[in-house]
């Protein structure tokens, strides 16, 4: 089953890191992806640019409404994602525990729902 692991952290903490600390964290992330790939658990993933580069789109009455910035004001910002293959939520959580930015923020682990032409669940 597929699980999306959303990486959140407070960008202001990352901005206070030295270049060496930031590079070391990114090297850890690369190593984590290599390890997950070797084990067959990594499907896709990517870090995101800062929330200052985000635009939120809402479609209302057939017209786009654009807002600069992320969808919500929060203490932690969405920083990236890992798409993992795991047998169940417990395994997905164990894999997500190894994602290095978890030390600085949080990892939201959610099952991916299959989108079908008919008979989709709402939960």
The counted number of beta strands is: 6
Q: Largest sheet, described in full?
A: 4 strands, antiparallel
Tally of structural domains: 1
Q: Strand pairing plus helix content: what structural class?
A: alpha+beta
Q: Low-confidence parts, pLDDT < 50 over ≥5 residues? A: none
| Dominant shape | flat
CATH-defined topology: Alpha-Beta Plaits
Beta-strand fraction estimate: 25-35%
The radius of gyration is 17 Å
CATH superfamily: Dimeric alpha+beta barrel
The end-to-end distance, rounded to whole angstroms, is 16 Å
Mean pLDDT: 93
Strand order of the largest sheet: 2-5-1-6
Helix coverage percent: 25-40%
Ordered list of secondary-structure elements with their pairings:
Layout: E1 2-9, H1 11-15, H2 19-38, E2 42-47, E3 55-60, E4 63-68, E5 77-85, H3 89-96, E6 105-111
Antiparallel strand pairs: 1-5, 1-6, 2-5, 3-4
Description:
It comes from Pseudohongiella nitratireducens. This is YCII-related domain-containing protein. Belongs to the YciI family. InterPro entries: Dimeric_a/b-barrel, YCII. The protein has 123 residues and is of the alpha+beta class. It has one domain (2-111): Alpha-Beta Plaits (2-Layer Sandwich). The chain has three helices and six strands; from the N terminus they run βααββββαβ. The protein has helices at residues 11-15, 19-38, 89-96; strands at 2-9, 42-47, 55-60, 63-68, 77-85, 105-111. The strands form two sheets. A four-stranded antiparallel beta sheet has the order 2-5-1-6. A hairpin with a 2-residue loop joins β3 and β4. The two termini are 16 Å apart.
């Amino acid at each position: 089953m597929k699980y999306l692991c959303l990486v959140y952290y407070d960008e202001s903490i990352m901005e206070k890191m030295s270049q060496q600390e930031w590079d070391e964290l990114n090297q850890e992330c690369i190593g984590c992806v290599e390890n997950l790939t070797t084990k067959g658990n990594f499907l896709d993933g990517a870090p995101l640019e800062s929330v200052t580069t985000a635009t939120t789109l809402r479609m209302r009455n057939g017209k786009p409404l654009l807002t600069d910035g992320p969808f919500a004001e929060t203490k932690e910002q969405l920083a990236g994602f890992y798409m993992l293959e795991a047998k169940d939520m417990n395994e997905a959580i164990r894999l997500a525990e190894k994602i290095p930015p978890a030390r600085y923020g949080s990892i939201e682990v959610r099952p991916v729902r299959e989108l079908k032409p008919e008979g989709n669940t709402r939960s």
